[in-house]
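Dear colleagues,

As part of the handover before I leave the project, I'm documenting each prediction I ran so the next person doesn't have to rerun anything. This entry is a single chain, and its sequence is reproduced below.
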Amino acid sequence: MRTEILPLGSDSLARAKELLLAGELVAFPTETVYGLGADARSDAAVENIYRVKGRPSDNPLIVHVHKDYDLSLLVEDDRSYAAKLREAFLPGPLTLVYKSRGRVSAKVSCGLDTLAVRVPSHPSAQEFLKYVGIPVAAPSANISKHVSPVSAQHVYDDLHGKIPLILDGGACSGGIESTVCDVTGDYPVVLRQGLVSREMIESVTGKCGLYVPKAGEQVRSPGMKYKHYAPACRTCLFEADEIGKALTCFYRNRDAGMRVLILCEEAAADNFPSDSVLRLGNTAEEMAANLYALLRDAETKADMLIAVKPHARGGVMDGVLNRLCKACAGEEK
């Protein structure tokens, strides 16, 4: 299969709609990462997502719609706080999990009676979703467990020859996936942390929980169960106060002949050789925007990536740390 990268325009949108209605997959930009879209109403199309990505079949998907889409066609919404969250944060990087009306393929939610719905703010995503006019199921447009893509080229690197079309909307500005929040209970509960923080949600609703998955329980949101976001090189992860240990690891592996890079916040960068540092940035928002692009960069230049956690905690930083730990934890130091 030949994979085309096309800028958004009348011809590429018409092609995208034709492909989706035929059960094919189309990658498209959002403000967070690129999505791998399929007609959410079709079992075969949704199965195609899992096949192409190599995604575990018990890992639910998110349905994407444009800002004027009638949500009542897809979900039951009887929580007043859900409307407040939509008003405050949508379109934007917040996915809300509702009771489903069963109008899309059951494979989207892996048999659960809920449905995760997102309204992305990226202008190209809005144009695409409005043009196709159907609910589009879409995880990140990468091979499962690899670093999420924040450019059309990243998508191509992972999926060329496997999908027919990538709509190019430039680099994603947000950088990490949307926050996922369950709105089926008496108050919202964050299932996956992201750019809309728990604190931001709480400021609108007065109360917001944070879900901790239990062993053996079926996952209710993407990003909760499996190792994700991992670059194709060896990794290790140190705490913010373990600069000395990180340096020892760096020199030990470099002296053994490995190409080694350090990933850290700007405040820690001067502790390491300047030509071996990938700088995440100063603020949580900068780090979120830079993280995946730097992980992708590292795997092309290094045999080992040593990551050092930023000092800050809370808010958007919790989402950054979640991704960083899933990408780099678990390897020997």
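The radius of gyration is 20 Å. The mean pLDDT is 94.

All the best with the project,
I.
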